[in-house]
Write a structure and sequence with these properties.
By secondary structure, this protein is of the alpha/beta class. It is built from 18 helices and 16 strands. The strands form three sheets. It has an eight-stranded mixed beta sheet, with helices on both faces. Strands 11-10-9-12-13-16 form a six-stranded parallel beta sheet, with helices on both faces. It has a two-stranded antiparallel sheet with strand order 14-15. Strand 12, helix 14 and strand 13 form a beta-alpha-beta unit. The mean pLDDT is 94.
Length: 480
């Protein structure tokens, strides 16, 4: 079977260039790459079809085709459309018709079309619908995120819509999502909460029925178990030494205490401040455990926090001020971790100290970070709001601790359950590795996709109706 992944924005190359450094090179690209590789391991031929960029500032994306070293069955295909320079995703909507023309020409030239298409994000979904209309190829839609929720977060109203739309192009994005979810043979979601809470937004009313089970399938993002696993690497000694030096600089007698690891972006919704307050306000935790907050790019956060720009710098400054006010530099530590391999090593170091991972976000759409820690054998305490509620407790079996992120006493109680109940800590550590590998690896995600695709690929579907403004005829009507 041949499957095409349509992902016109961002880009892909063997070195994963620019990932996390640019808003168009985020988690969606990781998802697409890892899912494609996992599908290929099951004998599927996969094309990741994206955009060709011939721009001296983006030299990685100039060739028509590319491949991942050592990976067979996955091809990166770059289509010429929208000019040659890099364009942010908000500028691609009017060019998607040319993207689809380019895809069609490619497969005509190669005399073989995909058996199935997966459309990613609204632009990939709309492109899949356009190709389905032309070639009657069934497609799925994976939104990754939906524009209606973004509009709500930005506080969009009828009065400010036009001004905000100039930046975010919601007048194109929302119609693209509507077409994608209506005409796909199935909508893949990360959790059932995503289905019922996000797709039920009033802006999608009459375009999708969230109560129709045949229209949805849950396929959560996977953990990269090539990196996150319990097997020690040479990095473990490096990270052990780095952790030891970090602690000894302020408290030489606390190196062997259990460590609570916090690793997330420094932004308000991640609620690292709430975790810090929960820790500092509990005397027993202060005495018996260390809190380690992961930062990136600075070796001594207490001295170099002013070098961190923007909102992350502001939050880091507030965290450090809180620690200083409690005179807690001998209990709360900040440590530089620069990549996923180092992070996995840190998790294994925390396992050796009978520690835990903590993520108490105000809301977490899915929550891959706790699963990455769990894949290394590190038990987790996670927010009850969002995705973790679906994987920390499954079929009545507990695989971790859920807490209320807005209740610092409840957070502290969750932390203490794993710090002071060593038997529970060890019991979870033993079973969570196999649990994540079986249910939340990319291989497991690929199998869910392929099972649904096999069921749906021959399903008759209505030919999509594509709004004329996507075909270069007129402008989109105002949403609000």
């Amino acid at each position: 079977m041949k499957i095409a992944f349509l992902n016109p924005q961002g880009n892909f190359d063997p070195l994963d260039s620019h990932w996390t450094d640019h808003p168009d090179f985020g988690g969606q690209l990781v998802y697409v790459k890892e899912l494609a590789i996992a599908m290929a391991s099951y004998g599927v031929n996969v094309d990741i079809v994206t955009r060709r960029i011939v721009d001296k500032h983006w030299p990685e994306f100039s060739t028509p085709f590319d491949y991942y070293p050592g990976i067979s069955g996955v091809r990166i295909v770059r289509i010429n459309f929208g000019g040659t320079e890099f364009l942010p995703k908000e500028k691609l909507w009017k060019c998607l018709k040319d993207y689809v023309v380019g895809i069609e020409k490619l497969y005509v030239r190669e005399r073989t079309f995909p058996d199935f298409i997966t459309g990613h994000y609204g632009d990939g979904g709309l492109s899949a619908a356009m190709l389905a209309k032309k070639r009657k190829i069934p497609f799925s839609f994976t939104a990754h995120s939906l524009g209606a929720q973004k509009m709500d977060k930005l506080g969009v109203t009828a009065e400010n819509f036009q001004a905000i739309d100039k930046t975010y192009s919601f007048s194109y994005r929302i119609p693209a999502e509507r077409v994608s979810m209506k005409y796909s043979v199935v909508n893949f979601v990360s959790t059932s909460q995503e289905r019922f809470e996000q797709y039920s937004h009033p802006l999608y009313k009459n375009w999708i029925d969230v109560n129709n089970n045949s229209r949805f399938a849950v396929a959560s993002p996977g953990v990269n178990t090539r990196i996150f696993n319990p097997a020690a690497t040479e990095l473990d000694d490096v990270i052990t030494d780095r952790y030891t030096r970090t602690v000894v600089a302020y408290a030489s007698n606390r190196v062997e205490k259990p460590v609570i690891v916090s690793s997330s972006r420094l932004e308000p919704k991640k609620n690292v401040a709430g975790l810090l307050k929960a820790f500092l306000n509990d005397k027993k935790l202060n005495e018996e455990a260390n809190l380690l907050i992961v930062v990136k790019g600075i070796s001594n956060a207490y001295k170099e926090y002013s070098k961190v720009p923007g909102e992350p710098g502001r939050i880091l400054k507030e965290l450090i001020e809180t620690v200083s006010a409690h005179k807690a530099r001998d209990r709360v530590f900040f440590m530089n971790i620069s990549n996923q391999k180092e992070l996995a090593a840190l998790y294994r170091v925390a396992v050796s100290k009978e520690g835990l991972f903590a993520m108490v976000s105000l809301y977490e759409p899915f929550g891959l970070a706790p699963l990455e820690a769990m894949a290394c054998g590190l038990p987790a305490v996670a927010t009850k709001n969002g995705g973790p509620s679906e994987f920390m407790i499954k079929s009545g079996v507990k695989y971790g601790i859920l807490v209320d992120p807005e209740d610092i006493i409840n957070i502290a109680e969750g932390l203490k359950k794993l710090i002071f109940d060593r038997r529970l800590n060890m019991e979870l550590s033993k079973k969570i590795v196999d649990y994540v590998k079986k249910d939340y690896s990319w291989g497991a995600t690929a199998l869910r996709y392929l099972k649904v695709i096999e069921e749906k690929k021959r399903c008759p579907s209505k030919l999509p109706e594509i709004p004329s403004f996507f075909l270069g005829k007129g402008e989109p009507p105002l949403l609000l």
